[in-house]
Amino acid sequence: MSALKGFITIEGGDGAGKSTQIRMLGNYLEKKNIPHLLTREPGGSIGANEIRQILINGQLNKWDAISETLLFYAARRSHLVDTIWPALKEGKLVISDRFSDSTMAYQVYGRQTGSITKEQIEELYHLVAGDFKPDLTIILDIDPQIGLSRVQKRGEQDRFEASALSFHERLRQGFKEIAAAEPRRCIIINANQSEEAIHQSIVQLIEERFL
User: Fold this and answer.
1) pTM for this structure?
2) Contact 88, 3 (CB under 8 A)
3) Fewest beta carbons less than 10 Å away: which of 16, 22, 160, 194?
4) 42: preceding bond cis by omega (within 30 degrees)
5) Helix axes 118-129, 65-79, angle to 10 degrees
6) What's the CA gap between 69 and 47, in Å, rounded?
7) How do residues 170-192 score in pLDDT, each as one tens digit?
């Protein structure tokens, strides 16, 4: 099959199954012989991976919201310049485990410190990415209690996963509000279903939008 260009992001709360669904989607694209790249945030490039280690380890409140957001966007710029944009230029379908919607949901809705606003994050996004946006964002929606129970079964938690249940409830609401503001780009899928049911819903979206 010929090259298929597009940028897809998979978002959602912790334990929603994003990594599993991206792996399943990658297998589907491989079977279809569709050139693609699977990546993640924070990370996805040499520089961004170094920042990732700083971001996900340690105590939750080791930075204020502004410092943390700037780190996320430094990593995002490296990810875009070194990985996402070159892959799209090559005609690949790029699928990222998290992108800018996670920063908005975690910093504005989840943390609720009041020290950084939605408008400030949007300005920072424009500085880093310009008018570039995902062609499709799939938000896996799950009850935070169920999601956190899955995370706990996996073992060690990162500094965000270890946050209180109330944080994850606000995070879920944040993703819902983001989706409501951009209904064409953002599609919510119920992540309480079986892995295969979720996968089929994602494949249907891919086929409708890109194939």
Assistant:
1) 0.92
2) no
3) 194
4) yes
5) 20
6) 16
7) 999 999 999 999 999 999 999 99
